[in-house]
Design goal:
ten-stranded mixed beta sheet, binds 3-isopropylmalic acid, Isopropylmalate Dehydrogenase, alpha/beta, binds magnesium ion
């Protein structure tokens, strides 16, 4: 099969890790007899520098015309003082919205080989955990009305959260369907003791739960969830939550796996076109030094093959290659933990993965 993939390398370590994933995709294509055509587009700080805006129209059009999108990371100190609507991060929200990617799947799985990198005690980690966070991605406070106004104490800034029944239902359905293919458990996380949007969220989730009698459903307040993730992560299978809660909890979930450098994500909408990206940021402090861990981006590319192109064997091949590299003890600096391994760089890690493919 032939597929057109838009590459949004972005800033910081973005170019290195995307190049690594492209090498892995090319090797996979060769092995399985496919053809992937890659077209790079600008996004984030590099787009501000080259085109004066973080999300040029050409980038949006290019992504819309592609079969899927692979993204590195955006942002860096150079652009931190830009006004809110000109920041690199705005481009990320813009492209998610333009592509209609309302679902963000963030798997947080403990690799047995990386157990020692997890900050959790052995008795908590047990046999390991495998959590799928289903985060709503194009609504909520990220996209609500915002601005400045005069308030009780003078000038104030405000952001608002709104969720429609339609938005809650469609993300909830993704969570239940995902759970049906996994361990059939869904925990919906909200702040229904305080927020009106959360109360509507909870009501709709309860209605949906009735349609999935095989799924064991429960609600959890977000503060409790933050605690439960480190107290007993094994209780979770699928977590479904709003845009902002999902942002926060997915970083926490990634850290307990040992490294944020390992976690992939898929952003999906109503079509097979998705956007795939590591959940970590652009790590400007190590950019261009061949120190980045490319695994999250490589695994994101595997998710693309699985979710956008339906190429499950190919995705398995990439994931298995990563497993074997870790089993053999190869580590980038972020996942050395107390393994005693000497850290290898981004390029060397890529070579190891290609070797296993
Ligand atoms: C993420 C990031 C983004 C988000 C930022 C960079 C806008 O933290 O993908 O988790 O908050 O969604
Ligand atoms: Mg985040």
């Amino acid at each position: 099969m032939e597929y057109n993939i838009a590459l949004l390398k972005g800033d910081g370590i973005g170019p290195e890790i995307v190049d690594s994933a492209v090498a892995v995709l090319e090797k996979t294509a060769e092995k399985f007899g496919h053809k992937f055509n890659f077209t790079p587009y600008l996004i984030g700080g590099c787009a501000i520098d080259a085109a004066g805006e973080p999300l040029p129209k050409e980038t949006v059009d290019g992504c819309l015309a592609s079969d899927s999108v692979l993204l590195g990371a955006v942002g860096g100190p150079k652009w931190d003082d830009m006004p809110g609507d000109k920041r690199p991060e705005k481009a990320l929200l813009g492209i998610r919205s333009a592509l209609g990617l309302f679902t963000n799947l963030r798997p947080a799985k403990l690799y047995p080989a990386l157990r020692s990198a997890s900050p959790l005690k052995d008795e908590i980690v047990g046999e390991g955990f495998d959590i799928m966070i289903v985060r709503e991605l194009t609504g909520g406070i990220y996209f609500g009305e915002r601005g400045y106004r005069q308030g009780k104490f003078g000038e104030e800034a405000f952001d608002t959260e709104a969720y429609s029944i339609t938005e809650i239902k469609r993300i909830g359905r993704v969570a239940f369907e995902t759970a049906m293919k996994r361990n059939k458990r869904v925990v919906s996380i909200d702040k229904a003791n305080v927020l009106e949007t959360s109360r509507l969220w909870r009501k709709i989730m309860h209605e949906l739960a009735k349609e999935y009698p095989d799924v064991q459903y429960s609600d959890m307040l977000v503060d409790n969830a933050a605690m439960q993730l480190v107290r007993d992560p094994r209780q979770f299978d699928v977590i479904v939550t709003s845009n902002m809660f999902g942002d926060i909890l997915s970083d926490e979930a990634s850290q307990i796996t040992g490294s944020i450098g390992m976690l992939a994500s898929a952003s999906l909408g109503d079509t097979t076109r998705g956007m795939y990206e590591p959940i970590h940021g652009s790590a400007p402090d190590i950019a261009g030094q061949d120190k980045a861990n490319p695994i999250a981006t490589v695994l994101s590319a595997a998710m693309m093959l699985r979710y956008s192109f339906g190429l499950a064997d190919e995705a398995d091949a990439i994931e298995n290659a990563v497993d074997r590299v870790l089993e053999k003890g190869f580590r980038t600096a972020d996942i050395v933990g107390d393994s005693g391994a000497a850290a290898i760089g981004c390029a060397a890690m890529t070579e190891k993965i290609l070797g296993e493919l």
